[in-house]
Amino acid sequence: MKSHLYHIVLSCIGLALCACVDQINLELEAGQSNVVVFGWITDEAVPYEIKLSWSNGYSDQSGYLPVSEAKVYVTDQSGTQYDFVEIATSGRYQSDPSVFVGQPGGIYQLTIHHGQSIYQSAKEELPPLSPVQDVFVDFVADPADFNVKPEDENFFVSAFVEDDVILENYYRWKVYVNNELRNKPEELVLFDDQFTNGNKFKYDASNVLFTAADQAQIQHMSLSKGAFEYYINIKEQTSSSALTPRIQPGIIKGNMSNPNNDNELVLGYFGASAVATIQVGK
Question: pLDDT at residue 3 above 90?
Fold first, then answer.
């Protein structure tokens, strides 16, 4: 459908260039709504949240409607079930941190019952987290070589990672600037140990820039291979860099499905991470 729509748009541009007088009205299909799931658990003793909503059709401007009144729970490798309770009718379901805290090495699976439908994630491991050392603020160029104005965004977070020699490690840094998460697709900080396995290596979050006056902190997170690839796909499809042009747009499939209906597309991802939150000094 997207490819078809793309060709329609190109045709319309050509017609508009040839004849700018006639008005062309297109009737597009409304499209189908799909369940969108996003949830993450960590090894922090905090409430975890699962968000459920409906995707929009092409012509639907009503916003993302919540999927309410669902039964939502996570099970671990021993079969223990942890229930998530909806906040009002928001489509946001939260766990009780006094009952459920994720454990590194644990295997978790999300299950959702809504009406007659069942949605389930693949089993997701909460990977152990290799530590970081010497977290600091670096700069794009030496400020001593030229006049850096206070409003110039020339600074970014760097750190040394003590990578685990046994495991394949995948990492994400959430960078907060003045307590605000920098979370645009081009600001996703993702890296792995493909060429640095078992070594201490330096990584630069040089795609998230801020000024000398800003305060920064990072959440150093472990990812499964599936979660890493999911975020890489998001970043690649939304990149606007001239050096890394966008790939052909397409549906980004996560790890959710309807076990009773292989043909139903379920969007989103359920993941698990170990987390270390670090205040960055200058």
Answer: no
3-state SS assignment for residue 54: strand
Checking if the pLDDT of 55 tops 60, the result is yes
- 275 and 148 in a common domain: yes
pTM of this structure: 0.82
Count of structural domains, the chain? 2
* C-beta atoms surrounding 161 within 10 Å: 21
Supply the DSSP string of 135-161, one letter for each residue.
EEEEESS-GGGS---TT---EEEEEEE
Give the 3-state secondary structure of residue 147.
coil
Residues 6+ apart with CB under 8 A from 268: 35, 36, 37, 38, 254, 256
Interval 80-122: pLDDT, tens: 999 999 999 999 999 999 999 999 999 999 999 999 999 999 9
Residue 58's domain spans which residues? Answer: 33-125
Tokens standing for 224? Answer: 């499964």
CB 263 within 8 A of CB 117: no
Tell me how crowded residue 18 is: count the other CB atoms within 10 A of its CB.
8
Last residue of a domain, one of 62, 94, 125: 125
CA torsion angle 137 143 149 155 (round to 10):
-20
| Residue listed under structure tokens 């020699």 | 165
> Of how many residues is the chain composed?
282
Q: Which two tokens mark 179?
A: 């307590």
Q: Are residues 107 and 246 in the same domain?
A: no
Assign residue 176 the CATH number of its domain: 2.60.40
Residue 104 per-residue DSSP state: T
Given 125, 150, 175, the domain boundary residue is: 125
